[in-house]
Structures are given as structure tokens and as C-alpha cells.
Amino acid sequence: VNHIWMIFIVVVLFTVFPDGFAVVMTALHVPLMLVLLGIVLRGSAFVFRAYGMQPNAVRERWGRVFAWASAITPVFLGMSLGALSSGDIRVSFDARGGAHPTTGFFAGWTSGFAVVVGLFTLALFVMLAAVYLAQEAEHLGELELATDFRRRALATEALAFLVALLVLWRASVECPGLYYDLLHARWSIPAQLLTALVAGAAIWALIADHLQLARVFVTIQIGLIVLGWGLAMDGFLIRPDLHVADAGAEAAVLASLPWVLLGGSVLLVPALIGLFRLFGKLD
User: Fold this and answer.
1) Where exactly are the structural domains of the chain?
2) DSSP letters for 172-215
3) How far is CA 3 from the centre of its chain?
4) Are the C-beta atoms of residues 166 and 178 closer than 8 Å to each other?
5) H or E, element range at 142
6) What pLDDT score was predicted for residue 53?
7) CA 4 to CA 271: how far, in whole Å?
8) What is the pLDDT of residues 62-92, one digit of tens each?
């Protein structure tokens, strides 16, 4: 269940943007493989730590594996997204219109901009996890643990703000086109203000110990950040060479996609709701 989103993104990407999928998976196969490795290690370590019959020392080692895998996975995911925005991955087109990366396997994702985007992604993951765990601990009556997670959520809100400033600084130095769209496009200031207001509401909810509201506000805040990044890409799948118009599939595939997604949602959403309710009752 945890990684349905990843399967969904991969399937939609190679279905809707086959050329873009080929370029991304070629140019960024190193960090994406590290993301997959982190996901596998995280899932395996969780099982061995939680359900294994080993001595405590062995379970502690699996706990460390789980912790490190949980940390590196969002970092490399963010570095991959930063690489798509950086302009360092260059793409050429052959006579048939097929897209091919012309830069090396370490272009883009090893830049300073990509690294701080990776750290920003980690901060967002930590903040979201802390808020959710605080609310869950409160629900289970673990008030001391809920307070601890609430403090961690507040700390990571502040940390995320500071790292966001670093992202803007590195964008101004390395990615002027992206920097312009983040701050000077028509939608930029309203989007930034709305995100700031929602972040402020999340901080207020955490301070006031309204954890259910904090969960809602933090989720909206991260959704707005992702939306802002998508708008700042200005229609490019990979800046500055591969636009979505150049990476799309056949018109018939694109036309059928909304109906396929709608049909899949009719089956998937009720199943997920039932699954979450089942695990909630088991807890």
C-alpha cells in the first residue's frame, strides 16, 4: 500500500510520456536505483525488526538499517526532481523525433541545487511523518510520545523553511529560468502567499495541540509545494529541452487516459479506505 503512488507514477509516465520516461530512466538511473534500493531496504528492515525472532542486538541493527534507508530515500528522490529542474540534463532528438539524453549519468543530480532540493524533500517527509505520528500517538493515548512528535514537527517546519531559502538561493545561482518562474511568474506571489498562510496555520495547529487540523494543514502545505514546483517547470518534463508536448504518446492514448484513471479509482479508492479502516480497528 505504501508504494502504490510510485507504481502509479511509473505506469502513467511510461504510458503518457514514453520519450520522457526513456530519458529520465537513462539520465537518472543512478539516483533512482538508489531510491529503489532504499525502499527495498526500508520495507525489509521493518519486517525483520518488527516480526523477527532474533536477539535484541540483531533487531537493533535492522532498526538502524530502517532509519538510514528512510533518510536516504527521500534525499535521492528529491535530488532526482532537482535534476529535472536544473537544466543540466540536456536532450537531443533524432530524425524520427525520439528523445535521447546527451549528458552523462551524473549530470544534474550531483549539483548543489539538486542536493539542497534533496534535503528539502527530506525535511518535508520528516515533517509530515512527525505530524501523522503525533496524531496517531494521541489517538492511542500516548500523550508524552505525541508531545515529542509535535515538537519534532514544529522543529522540522522551521528547518524546512530554512532549507527552502537555500533552494531559492541555489536556484538563483544555477537555475535562473526556474528561479524566475518561482518568484516572478503571474501565479508565483499568490501561490507563495497561500503556501505561507497554510504553513502558518499548520504551526498554529501544532502549538495549540490541534493535531487533526495540523495533519490537514501540513498535507495541504506539501501539496501546494508540489503544485508550485510543477507550475515552475512551465510545461517542461526536463528543463530546458524536453517539453511535455514533445514527450507525449499518441493522441488516442492520451484521450483514453482520464477514463482509465477514473475506472481504476472506482476500484482502488474504496479498497484503500477499507484497508485503512481495517488496520485502524486492529490497532
Assistant:
1) 4-249
2) HHH-HHHHHHHHHSTTHHHHHHHHHHHHHHHHHHHHTT-HHHHH
3) 12
4) no
5) none
6) 61
7) 12
8) 889 999 999 999 999 999 999 999 989 999 8
